[in-house]
Amino acid sequence: MPETSFLIASKGLEKKTFFSMSEILKEELEMESNISVLSGPNLASEIIEGMAAACVIAAKNEKTGKEFSNILDRKSFKVFLNNDVKGVELAGALKNIYAIVSGLSDGLGNKKNTKAMILTRSLVEMSHLFEALKLKKLTLLGLAGVGDLFATASSEKSRNYSFGYLLGKGKSREEAKKIINQVIEGEKTLKIVYEKVSALELDMPIVEKLYNIVFKKGSVKESFDKMMDRVIKEVSDRHKKEFGFGIPDKEKDKVYNNTKEKQYKGELTNVKKDNRKEN
After folding, report:
1. Which of 52, 59, 15, 18 has the alpha carbon at shortest distance from 37?
2. Residue 217 to residues 123, 178, 220: CA-CA distances in angstroms?
């Protein structure tokens, strides 16, 4: 009997296990080698119109990935291949959360500069989770990451963006869902990711404050402002750490000397390793 190949176009995470769709299917069918996933910035209405678009198909089995690529690849719909199945799926699920935040920002009356900062920091938060789960952060720079994030977070056709926008306009969670009258993927994903982030003790203020707005019914404006304060402080602290901004000269000297000492010890270790190899 010939083996069956699966191409998953659904995005989501299982609450108890944090499994992606391919991991759930693998557990049920025990067929990992024939499972592929499709993701990317693909707003359905634009694809139907024949507008140029691209997607990524991720598969552990390269042959299976190429077979699906040959079926779907067209002049106006290009397919790229990837082997980071979990990374592609997680990126596709996470971007729905940050699309809600983007809509929320617009609903509150913020402009493009604010959105640009939010989306940039969203990618940073996503990379923190990827690093904690030992996934390839480079995947976030492709169609499944930054591509899908930018498309979903800037389109009124996106259900997640629209949900956030309505919250920013003062609608309650229930009112916003009733108006959209479709599944808001990012809502359920937000709860699952918030619990995972809490368990891993990661600092992801955008996820934390959005959870407070959606599920704890916190003040939208107050929670958003606190989120922005946290984001800005994180950027400031990171710059101080990396470039020495705002650090007294004596402290800078300590940091510099410690860095040089570590560098010297590292070089000394490498010399000893090289000597052992030669001997």
Report:
1. 59
2. 25, 17, 8
Spatial separation of the C-alpha atoms in residues 71 and 66, rounded to whole Å: 9
Q: In which band, very low, low, confident or very high, does the pLDDT at 244 lie, cut at 50, 70 and 90?
A: low
Alpha-carbon gap, residue 58 to 268, rounded angstroms: 42
79: CB partners within 8 A, 6+ apart: 54, 55, 56, 57, 68, 69, 72, 73
**What are the phi and psi torsion angles at 83 (to 5°)?**
-110, 5
Q: What distance in Å separates the CA atoms of residue 224 and residue 101, rounded to the nearest whole number?
A: 9
Question: pLDDT confidence of 99, banded at 50, 70, 90?
Answer: very high
Which residue's structure tokens are 């309650």? 172
Q: Which tens digits make up the pLDDT trace of 150-179?
A: 999 988 889 999 999 999 999 999 999 999
pLDDT of residue 81 exceeding 80, the answer is yes
Tokens (6 digits) for 6: 């699966």
In the chain, the DSSP E strands lie at 6-8, 35-39, 53-59, 77-82
pLDDT band for 1, please (50, 70, 90 cuts).
very low
| Cα dist from 276 to 180, 268, 272, 273, whole Å | 67, 13, 6, 5
Q: 11, 26, 95, 171: which is the annotated catalytic residue?
A: 95
Name residue, tokens 């176009």. 9
Query: For residues 129 and 94, is the Cβ–Cβ distance under 8 A?
Result: yes
Indicate if 216 belongs to the active site.
no
Whether the Cβ atoms of residue 126 and residue 78 lie closer than 8 Å to each other? no
